[in-house]
């Protein structure tokens, strides 16, 4: 797995400025989430019920605070059109959802989404993180024609795990991901031919991306869709919000958007890549776990506070550039 984009690709110099009004709204959300007395349930059902049972509530762990970066809060604010209360509710829901599906990255939590639980789903290489586009965004290949399992929630968990790793792979100054979807059916060992995911699985995956990974999609390019898949996509299209619809591209070759050196040879690129599960899967798991741990340790080094910047956490500089109280309105 490629761990970083080419050095020739432009690197952002720092954070982008926001307006004074946006900064005020950001601080409203930040102060609410920073409350040391904030406790949340372990699942979204209890959150929606408004449970006050102390035995089912838990304070934010250090890993959850690590997840609540400056950029994370801003992504949720943009997704909620800068409505502070909706953003706060959205963040709380996603925190509970992450506990529910096991995205805590904390060994003390009982429900971790271990790669061992979903490794079988990727034995045919139906989802791959490989390369970066010209804007240094990780490439997330979804090869629906390499389905190897019957429909189940584990397929959704698999997508969640890969999306989480894609977010980890985003280099310094990059928040979004490019998704490349290939619908061609491949007659290979282990592949269940003509087995597209059912509508329920596709809708569940779409809901996860829109609700819990807001402002993460740069573009989604779909190719090789047969007529019945096209019909399926027409059914799915109304479920997309307007912002997502603008990012979906149909029937344009991947090579139009990705430089050859970063594109798999199967799609007219120059990366000579053949998926071997016993090689790729442990390498990806190890690489992403190590990168996440390095970022977490930098978070601890810089104070371990909610609202630290991913720009600092994903860099290699020694001094903190953006303290929690840094005023982004002063940027040029």
Automatic annotation (TrEMBL):
<keyword id="KW-0492">Microsome</keyword>
<keyword id="KW-0256">Endoplasmic reticulum</keyword>
<dbReference type="Pfam" id="PF00650">
    <property type="entry name" value="CRAL_TRIO"/>
</dbReference>
<protein>
    <recommendedName>
        <fullName>SEC14 homolog 3</fullName>
    </recommendedName>
</protein>
<dbReference type="GO" id="GO:0016126">
    <property type="term" value="P:sterol biosynthetic process"/>
</dbReference>
<dbReference type="GO" id="GO:0008654">
    <property type="term" value="P:phospholipid biosynthetic process"/>
</dbReference>
<dbReference type="InterPro" id="IPR011074">
    <property type="entry name" value="CRAL/TRIO_N_dom"/>
</dbReference>
<dbReference type="InterPro" id="IPR001251">
    <property type="entry name" value="CRAL-TRIO_dom"/>
</dbReference>
<dbReference type="InterPro" id="IPR036865">
    <property type="entry name" value="CRAL-TRIO_dom_sf"/>
</dbReference>
<dbReference type="GO" id="GO:0071944">
    <property type="term" value="C:cell periphery"/>
</dbReference>
<dbReference type="GO" id="GO:0032934">
    <property type="term" value="F:sterol binding"/>
</dbReference>
<dbReference type="GO" id="GO:0008526">
    <property type="term" value="F:phosphatidylinositol transfer activity"/>
</dbReference>
<feature type="domain" description="CRAL-TRIO">
    <location>
        <begin position="117"/>
        <end position="275"/>
    </location>
</feature>
<dbReference type="GO" id="GO:0009410">
    <property type="term" value="P:response to xenobiotic stimulus"/>
</dbReference>
<dbReference type="Pfam" id="PF03765">
    <property type="entry name" value="CRAL_TRIO_N"/>
</dbReference>
<dbReference type="InterPro" id="IPR052578">
    <property type="entry name" value="PI_Transfer_CRAL-TRIO"/>
</dbReference>
<dbReference type="InterPro" id="IPR036273">
    <property type="entry name" value="CRAL/TRIO_N_dom_sf"/>
</dbReference>
């Amino acid at each position: 797995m490629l761990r970083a984009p080419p050095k020739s690709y432009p690197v952002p110099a720092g954070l982008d400025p926001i307006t004074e009004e946006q900064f005020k709204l950001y601080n409203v959300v930040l102060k609410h989430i920073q409350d040391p007395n904030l406790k949340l349930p372990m699942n979204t059902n209890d959150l929606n019920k408004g449970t006050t049972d102390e035995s089912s509530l838990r304070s934010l762990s250090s890993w959850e605070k690590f997840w609540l970066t400056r950029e994370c809060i801003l992504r949720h604010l943009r997704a909620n059109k800068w409505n502070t209360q909706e953003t706060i509710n959205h963040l709380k829901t996603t925190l509970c959802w992450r506990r529910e599906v096991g995205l805590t990255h904390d060994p003390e939590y009982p429900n971790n989404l271990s790669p061992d639980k979903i490794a079988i789903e990727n034995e045919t290489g139906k989802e791959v993180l490989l390369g970066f586009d010209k804007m240094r965004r990780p490439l997330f290949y979804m090869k629906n024609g390499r389905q190897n399992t019957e429909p189940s929630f584990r397929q959704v968990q698999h997508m969640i795990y890969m999306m989480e790793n894609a977010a980890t792979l985003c280099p310094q100054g990059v928040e979004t991901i490019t998704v490349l979807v290939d619908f061609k059916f491949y007659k290979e060992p282990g592949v269940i031919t003509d087995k597209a995911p059912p509508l329920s699985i596709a809708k569940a995956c779409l809901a996860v991306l829109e609700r819990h990974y807001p402002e993460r999609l740069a573009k989604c390019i779909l190719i090789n869709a047969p007529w019945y898949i096209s019909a399926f996509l027409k059914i799915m299209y109304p479920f997309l919000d307007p912002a997502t619809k603008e990012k979906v591209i149909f029937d344009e070759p991947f090579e139009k958007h990705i430089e050859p050196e970063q594109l798999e040879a199967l799609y007219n690129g120059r990366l000579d890549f053949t998926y071997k599960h016993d090689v790729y899967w442990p390498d990806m798991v190890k690489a992403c776990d190590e990168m996440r741990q390095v970022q977490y340790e930098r978070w601890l080094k810089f104070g371990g506070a909610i609202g630290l910047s991913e720009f600092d956490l994903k860099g290699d500089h020694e001094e903190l550039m953006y303290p929690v109280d840094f005023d982004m309105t002063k940027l040029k």
